[in-house]
Amino acid sequence: MSEIISYSELFKWDTCHRQYYYGFVLGLQPVEQSQAITTGVKGHQLLQSFYTLMQEGKAKEEAHKLTLVSAQKLLKSEGFADFSLLKSWTLVDNYIRDNDFTSEAVLVENRFLIPVAKIAPASFIDAYGLHDVQIGFTPDVVFKRPGGIYDVEDSKFVARAWSKSKLNRFQQAKLYQVLLRRMGYNVSRSAVRFFNVQTGIINVQNYPLTEAEEKTIIHDFTNGIKDVIQYRNQTPNTLSMARRTMNYTACQFCPFEFPCTLEAEGKDASKTFNNEYVKSDYNYSR
């Protein structure tokens, strides 16, 4: 496996080692995804199309029209009964109409790689052999405001509103701030824009970052990287012994709950994997 680690990978590791094994070691993903994920994939495609057009210098109105053309092409190729695409376009269309976009979209779905050594002390890197490990991350869009100030924003398509506690402890956006700052960008804030696929409501959550939070995020993230690298370096047989979480609330929406349960009961889940899961084509090293 490539020595590149993303927030998503580390989040999965912290959620459940077994789920991590299925997704990142075996490289599996469900044949059928949830409505929020399906809508989100298409919504991100449309947002990327719009932001790219803005990045190329198109006015909002023209970019909006051309994004509509992209949506119509997708709809034609997927079939007009594709309700997830219709829902994602409705959400994206409303978002574009309701915003002025006075800031410049300078980076769209830009893949960044930054060495762990840029955020962790040399003693930590030496102790755990992390010299060749890099962090991979891809913010949806980075806006530039007057004065050379940057804002980083991600979009989440969700099936339900997040609780206040979950919103407040969502660290991905703040991590993006930390990493981009270490790469020389003057990032003032990050934000996550939530597109609710059930209610059609769109709202944004801003994430300012304090110096104390930055230290905590770096500490927690780098220690998580160390744990994942140590796990990766085990033998294949040991990798397959990845344990299940004891926090069963994590199983509620887990795409691997059923085969995991079978295996936990000492049964063969290979037939389930062959029929209900496919190899992920996402390249984490690109």
What is the secondary structure topology, with strand pairs?
Layout lengths: L3 E2 L1 H9 L1 H9 L2 E3 L4 H21 L4 H19 L4 H15 L6 E5 L3 E4 L6 H7 L5 E4 L3 E5 L3 E10 L5 H5 L3 H11 L4 E10 L5 E6 L3 H22 L3 H4 L17 H8 L5 H7 E3 L7
Parallel strand pairs: 1-5, 7-8
Antiparallel strand pairs: 2-10, 3-6, 4-5, 6-7, 8-9
Helix pairs in contact: 1-2, 1-9, 3-4, 3-5, 4-5
Gist of the model:
The protein has 12 helices and 10 strands. With 286 residues, it is an alpha+beta fold.
Question: How would you characterize this protein structure?
Answer:
The chain has 286 residues and is α+β, with helices and mostly antiparallel strands. The chain has twelve helices and ten strands. The longest helix is centred in the C-terminal third of the chain and has 22 residues. The mean pLDDT is 91. The protein has a domain of 177 residues: Lambda Exonuclease, Chain A (Alpha-Beta Complex), CATH 3.90.320. The strands form three sheets. It has a five-stranded mixed sheet.
